[in-house]
Design brief:
Layout (H helix, E strand, L loop, with lengths): L1 H6 L6 H7 L7 H21 L4 H49 L2 H11 L4 H15 L6 H13 L2 H16 L4 H42 L2 H5 L10 H25 L13 H9 L3 H26 L2 H15 L1 H31 L5 H8 L5 H16 L5 H5 L7 H15 L5 H31 L1 H32 L1
């Protein structure tokens, strides 16, 4: 299925249809020009690597195979950048207009004057007409805002829409909350812009590494000539084609990783919820027994090997390895716990923001219950337990204190104490307390998102190192061929 998905764009009809989704018109004239450039680059590299016609053709074929993916990712990257800018401007204008007008309809009318053309303008007009003219709907405002939400597919925009609906129904002065949401949006936009800059730097460094690899691997073909010329040897030519193909593949894979939506929620496929349960249900005594059983065979092997060879290095190495097997359950548990702890640190502020917005219309327990549907995987089990405990004892502070207590995260404990204060009714004005919750959450979310960005950037830097491995492969082949040719000439000379 994956191969079909990747290579179906080699058919000309499929590629323009895909590119049209990102606002790019791919015409036959552009296709001819693009494939002409591929042929030109194949010829240039063929001449530089002294390749014969069949190998130059192979490079051209590889380029043709990868070209649709590169073009799609390039246009998709531009589309996602445009969508981020549009979403950021929409949220800023919608919050500003809603603060001034206090109704969703008037906020959309004012926002529509800013986006006066394009596909999003049409969505706004459709949403406005839905509110004005649809009479058989129980909730036309929510349905209208859902149209806009479907256009962006952004949890952040959906949260703002939910806040607006709740505020309009509840009434009262929500200026403070809107100001804090605007601040949250500004911090988010700044983080995304910084991440875009970091991604551009990483992409530039990957390109530099790839070009350096291709240039360095040319030198052995020109340093020695005459009887030591290896460029015509088939293995040298094949390795050159493989090197260029690997470099293309590295670029395509890296470009795919760097090409991402800046507003859509990323799917969580890490299985972190399962890892959370693994950490929570860890039975040290039971796991220690398993570790001891696993250590028996390595211990017997090293004892036998030491007795036979009587080598102190074998004894030391064996002790280290056996100790590792004895303690592997503790090591695995600590690594899993650290991973879960970091994920909680990143995801808790997102969940707390959803709860803070739900508190505009719901009490604390109902807001927590509703938040589970969109809660991060790492929090679902803990939230389910929290709700069960609150059902048994709704007025107690202990369920809030026990929430993720084993991870000793001060931000989590502080947020839960504030939720308890809201639920107990001893916190004064609810609106003011919710604003304080959002303010605190803004700081937590900024910290968490910066951690998440560090992880993304660190994961991308591996692609800067991969070209050096490809270069090592090519240089090893060339050096081996040079050695073989040199020894042959030496033999014939004698």
């Amino acid at each position: 299925m994956k191969k079909k998905c990747r290579f179906r764009f080699l058919r000309y009809r499929k590629l323009p249809q895909e590119l049209a989704k990102y606002g790019y018109e791919y015409t036959p004239k552009k296709a001819i020009a693009a494939y002409g450039i591929i042929v030109l680059f194949a010829a240039i590299f063929g001449l530089l690597y002294k390749l014969e016609i069949p190998y130059i053709a192979a490079i051209g074929i590889i380029g043709v195979v990868f070209f649709p993916m590169v073009l799609i990712q390039t246009m998709k990257g531009k589309y996602h950048t445009t969508m981020f800018s549009m979403a950021n401007n929409y949220m800023e204008q919608f919050l500003y207009s809603f603060k001034r007008n206090r109704t969703i309809l008037n906020a959309l009318l004012e926002t529509a004057t800013i986006f006066d053309e394009g596909a999003f303008h049409e969505v706004l007009i459709k949403a406005i007409r839905h509110i004005r003219y649809v009479t058989d709907s129980e909730d036309p405002e929510r349905e209208a805002l859902n149209m806009i939400g479907d256009f962006f597919h952004s949890d952040r925009i959906d949260s703002i829409h939910s806040f607006a609906i709740g505020t309009q129904r509840r009434g009262g002065d929500a200026g403070g909350s809107i100001a804090l949401l605007s601040k949250n949006r500004a911090m988010w936009a700044e983080r995304v812009i910084n991440l875009q800059k970091e991604f551009r730097i990483v992409k530039r460094n990957i390109m530099v590494a790839l070009m350096a690899t291709l240039l360095i691997c040319i030198f052995p073909l020109y340093l020695l000539g005459g009887d030591l010329d290896i460029s015509s040897i088939p293995l040298c030519q094949i390795s050159a084609v493989v090197l260029i193909g690997i470099c293309m593949l590295i670029y395509v894979k890296a470009d795919k990783k760097l090409c991402r939506s800046w507003i859509e929620k990323e799917s969580d496929s890490t299985g972190i919820g399962k890892k959370y349960l693994q950490v929570k249900n860890f039975d040290e005594a039971k796991e220690a027994k398993k570790s001891k059983k696993m250590a028996v065979i390595p211990a017997l092997l090293f004892i036998g090997t030491f007795v036979y060879f009587k080598d102190i290095e074998i004894l030391v190495g064996g002790i280290v390895i056996v100790l590792f097997f004895f303690n592997q359950h503790k090591i695995g548990h600590n690594l899993a716990k650290k991973k879960v702890e970091r994920e909680i640190e990143k995801q808790f502020p997102n969940w707390l923001m959803v709860v803070a917005l739900l508190l505009q219309t719901d009490n604390v327990q109902m807001a927590i219950r509703k938040s589970i549907d969109s809660a991060p995987e790492v929090l679902v089990h803990a939230l389910t337990k929290l709700i069960e405990e609150l059902e048994d004892d709704p007025n107690s502070i202990h369920p809030y204190h026990r929430f993720l207590k084993e991870y000793r995260n001060p931000d989590v404990q502080s947020g839960m104490r504030m939720l308890y204060a809201l639920s107990s009714g001893n916190s004064g004005k609810v609106t003011k307390q919710v604003e304080e919750l959002i303010e605190r959450n803004n700081t937590m979310m900024d910290k968490a998102k910066k951690l998440e960005q560090e992880d993304k950037i660190a994961g991308m830097k591996i692609y800067i190192l991969l070209p050096s491995l490809a270069a090592s492969f090519k240089l090893i082949v060339d050096m081996a061929l040079l050695l073989v040719v040199f020894l042959k000439n030496l033999t014939f000379g004698i």
